[in-house]
Amino acid sequence: MSRRRKRSIFDLMSEYMEDFRTWAEELIESVVAERPSWDTRSCCLEPLCNVLVAIDEVVVTADLPNTNPKSIRVEAVGEDFIEIRAKMKRKLRFDDFGITHRRGEFSSFRCQVRIPVPVDPEQMKIAFKRGVLEVHLPRKRG
Amino acid sequence: MSEPVKIVEKKPIPSDAIVVQGLPDVGLVGLIATAHIVSQFNLQEIAYVDSNLLPPIVVLHNGLPHSPLRIFANKDLIAVISEMPIPADAVQPITQALVSWVESKKAKITISIGGMPVPDRQDIKDPKVFGAASIASALKMLQEKGVDILKEGYMVGPQALVMRYCAEKNLPAIALLAQSFHNYPDPEAAAAAIKELTNITGLKIDVSQLLEKGEEIRLRARDVMKRTQHEMTRMKKSREYDLPLYV
User: Fold this and answer.
1) DSSP B75
2) Are residues A22 and A44 in the same domain?
3) Is residue A2 part of a domain?
4) Chain B residues with CB-CB distance to A under 8 A?
5) CB contacts < 8 Å between A and B, how many?
């Protein structure tokens, strides 16, 4: 008769972490990846974005090629999100990507980015270099 | 059981060729650079990778299906390119199969092109390129050509495993890593890597078109970048930022 080995707290933690990792990966897959990066109704492309939480600030970046820098708008939406909008220098159609089986054109970028920690949007600073937007949001203290 | 990774040859494969690999990774530097090389030299498709470890995807070009992971060549140059990220779980068997295939074709050298993420990329006008090598003779060659050497640190992903498997087989391989954005397609970094490739191999590759089309490439590469970002997270690419333990 085989004897079952008693599992240590470390085994249980390891299993829990593995389950959590799988769940998180599936969640990212379903929320982030499984929708188009374009919307023909609003004529918008969703830019690639990144959020970095530093000790004293949150830095959001967005890749905005083919953008007119003067058209960039960044606004706080509620307490947890910022919205980034920018107009393109020239409109794009699906044809420009070699796609002939879809119809539609795109004239701007738009996305909402979740800010994971409390920030002060009043003190927001933005910069636009090499086609990449940088939004600096100081973190709220206390 | 069938092989997990099969390289299907469609045309005769040149021997003694330079192999350039550009698999999706940081800033899509390798993919963008290698796609440009395929276009510049008008390389022809000679083989493709078939594997049940890859997602059930074909890429349509001019109405016909192709494997996303293909091999192009002329008589002196072989280019390996993937139009989709390699799933993290498949990187090891696929790079292992590619290195064995390269060995069987008696390639002169394997050059993997990639990106090296830097947080202040927006402030860098001319990205620097760093090199690493699988064996001492390849490292010496890089030093003689004046390439900045990646002396200490971690490499993660396809280029890392190409280097490791080539080292195990005592095959010459180098990695050229250009300073780049982590999560954004970076054609300027790709151009910098190509310039270093030209310095090392003597291949004449014009990058002016690549730089002119930079914005267009960044727009077209958004979705591949997003998928690649997901796989990079799964393979813990951020470990490249870690400081090494031994000095």
Assistant:
1) S
2) no
3) no
4) 121-123, 181-185, 188, 214-216, 218-220, 222-223, 225-227, 229-230, 233-234
5) 57
Q: Using one digit for the tens of pLDDT, what is the confidence trace for A23-76?
A: 665 665 555 557 888 888 899 999 999 999 999 999 999 999 999 999 999 999
**Cβ separation of B233 and A28 shorter than 8 Å?**
yes
Task: Residue B66: list chain A partners with CB under 8 A.
Answer: none
List of chain A residues whose C-beta atoms are within 8 Å of the C-beta of residue B229: 48
Same-domain status, A78 and A52: yes
> Domain check: are A32 and A19 in the same one?
yes
Provide the number of structural domains found in chain A. 2
Q: Are A12 and A63 in a shared domain? A: no
Residue A77 and residue A25 in one domain: no
B200, B4, B203: which is closest to B87 by C-alpha?
A: B4
Q: Does A42 touch chain B (CB under 8 A)?
A: no
Tokens describing residue B40:
């510049």
Check CB contact under 8 Å for B219 and A65.
yes
Residue in A39, A130, A132, A136 to test binding to B, most B beta-carbons within 10 Å: A130
Instruction: Determine whether B243 is exposed, middle or buried from the number of CB atoms within 10 Å of its CB (0-12, 13-18, 19+).
Output: exposed
- Partner B contacted by A9 (CB < 8 A): no
Q: What's the first-to-final CA gap in chain A, in angstroms?
A: 59
Predicted confidence at residue B65, as pLDDT, reads 94
pLDDT band at B155 (very low <50, low <70, confident <90, very high): confident
Verify that A90 and A104 share a domain, yes or no: yes
Both A89 and A27 in one domain: the answer is no
Helix (H) or strand (E) holding B40: helix B29-40
Q: pTM for this one?
A: 0.89
Whole-angstrom Cα distance, residue B175 to residue B165?
13
pLDDT digit string (tens) for B157-202? Answer: 899 999 999 999 999 999 999 999 999 999 999 999 999 999 999 9
| Cα–Cα distance for residue pair B247/B245, rounded to 1 Å | 7
The ipTM, to two decimals, is: 0.87
